Amino acid sequence: MSNEQFSLFDVASDDSPNLKPAKTKTRKPAEVIFDPATFDAALIPTTNKMPIPAGTYDSMDQIQVHCSECQRCGLGTTRTNAVVSRGNPNASILIIGEGPGENEDLQGKPFVGKSGQLLDKILQSVKLTEDDVFICNIVKCRPPENRKPSKDEMEACRPYLMEQIRLVNPKIIIMTGASAIEGLFQEKSVGITKIRGQWRDWEGRACMAIFHPSYLLRNQSRDQGSPKWLTWQDMQAVRQKYDELNAEEEF
Ligand code: SF4
Predict the structure, then answer these.
(1) Quick one: which of 174, 175, 177 has its CA closest to 212?
(2) Is the CB–ligand 1 distance for residue 136 below 6 Å?
(3) How far is the CA of 153 from the centre of ligand 1 (A)?
(4) CATH number of the domain that residue 193 is part of
(5) For residue 12, how far is its CA from the centre of ligand 1 (angstroms)?
(6) Containing structural domain, residue 79
(7) Is residue 233 in a domain?
(8) How far is CA 33 from CA 13, 43, 64, 79, in A?
């Protein structure tokens, strides 16, 4: 991996319209695919008391429909769109973020704002594309003012995440930021600085925490030991693991 690839970690201030504040924003819910022939909308859980057992869903589209109507937690009352996923549902790498921000809420896709652009560049730096990954969040609806989702909100939304992981069946899970670790491992507040870059097992999958791209946007240095430099090391480790697991599969 060359320094040239590391240089991809920068998001130029003017390289995308998404980087500039939108002048007008249409709060329009995204179209949701609904096929009554294969799907019973009456099963949409309206409270967090209604269980969502493993195996409930056959596709991401079904999860999208349920999340778009879901009121299992209070975030359902303030969202514009439920933000379920983007990327390849057959990918070997699944990336988990905390929750949707403003751009994501408006567009109905995760990591589409400035952080998302940086995430795409981070992936590009180790020659991965959107086709190699599946991207989702711990909570599918935007917490007001971009606050951290509460433990109850994470718990209410967890069945959807579990179903996404079951359907994608990734070999590698990348958790961006502390909330993603807390949500997946159901751990209390963790120090991302201490545990980033370490491989952990979750249900037979290799998991690694990295800094959230929004944190990297606030820490622009690429000096050795800086958050960007550390993330560059972590992503090279992810790429190596990805290649190793793919090689094992070929034998
Ligand atoms: S955040 Fe999750 S649990 Fe809460 S309303 Fe949205 S989809 Fe439902």
Answers:
(1) 177
(2) no
(3) 7
(4) 3.40.470.10
(5) 33
(6) 3-8+28-250
(7) yes
(8) 35, 16, 8, 18
| Ligand 1 center from residue 9 Cα (angstroms) | 32
Let me know if residue 20 belongs to a domain: no
Domain presence at residue 19: no
Q: Could you tell me if residue 17 is inside a domain?
A: no
Write the residue with the smallest CA distance to atom 2 of ligand 1.
157
Based on the structure, what is the number of domains in the chain?
A: 1
Query: Which residue is closest in CA terms to ligand 1's atom 3?
Result: 157
pLDDT exceeds cutoff 90 at 2: no
Half-sphere exposure of 27 (CA within 13 A, CB side): 4
The 10s digit of each residue's pLDDT in 8-48 is 677 754 333 333 333 434 455 555 555 655 666 677 777 78
243 — alpha (psi -120 to 50), left (phi > 0) or beta?
alpha
For the stretch 66-103, pLDDT in tens is: 999 999 999 999 999 999 999 999 999 999 999 999 99
